Amino acid sequence: MSETAARFPSGRLVVALLVLSVALWAPLSFVTVPHLQQSAGGLPPFDVRLRGYGYEEARALLLALGEEGRAYYLNPELVLDTIFPPIYAALGALALWWLTMPGRVRDGAVPIGWRVTLVAFPVAELVFDGLENFCIAKMIWTWPDLSPGLVRVASLATQLKFVAAALTLISLVVLAAAAAWRAISRPRTKTPMQKN
Question: Where in the chain are the domains?
Fold first, then answer.
């Protein structure tokens, strides 16, 4: 194995993806989602409903948004929310892979089965977020016709997105804490100057 392959992913790549993720997350969280909620008279957009939504809730939101709000949902909200998830998933997957490399939380690498399972969490989040976005777009495109089946799929995708996101975040926090603890508690070797 080459030295580059052994070090991949580098900490720098993970940090670069973190910066890019924050740059995309900020307008979603502080601009587009609040704008949609205000346009809908205080009703939260589909994307932020952790418990999902039923047919009547979906109809109420789309009606409250009006034509202008529904257009805003398609662009810029869903455009940004289509760009953000792959970058965020790459960040999560690479950070988890990096944290499970040899020397981070243990001397050897975390077993490959565990590493693949951990990386599956952000990938699942990406898949469910993409499905959610497609369903939301289809609900808007076909409005005022609203399929109960489409709403059920969209709602399930939203809920599963949050489950995968929680599993990713918990894994990252636990592994980062374990790596930090290992680094702090590792015995320090004294240099010749310190021995004097």
Answer: 8-183
Q: Which among 17, 37, 6, 45 is positioned nearest to 136, based on CA atoms?
A: 45
Pair 27, 79: CB distance under 8 Å: no
Residues 30 and 100: their CA atoms lie apart, in Å, by 33
* One-character DSSP codes across 137-150: HHHHHTTT---HHH
Helices (H), ranges, the chain: 3-7, 11-27, 33-39, 55-72, 78-99, 112-141, 148-185, 192-195
Residues 58 and 43 sit within 8 Å (Cβ to Cβ): no
Q: Considering the entire predicted model, what is its pTM? A: 0.88
In contact, 146 and 62? CB cutoff 8 Å = yes
Residue-wise pLDDT for 126-170, tens only, equals 999 999 999 999 999 999 999 999 999 999 999 999 999 999 999
Task: Please report, for residues 45, 110, 149, the alpha-carbon distance to residue 121 in angstroms, rounded to integers and kept in the order given.
Answer: 24, 16, 26
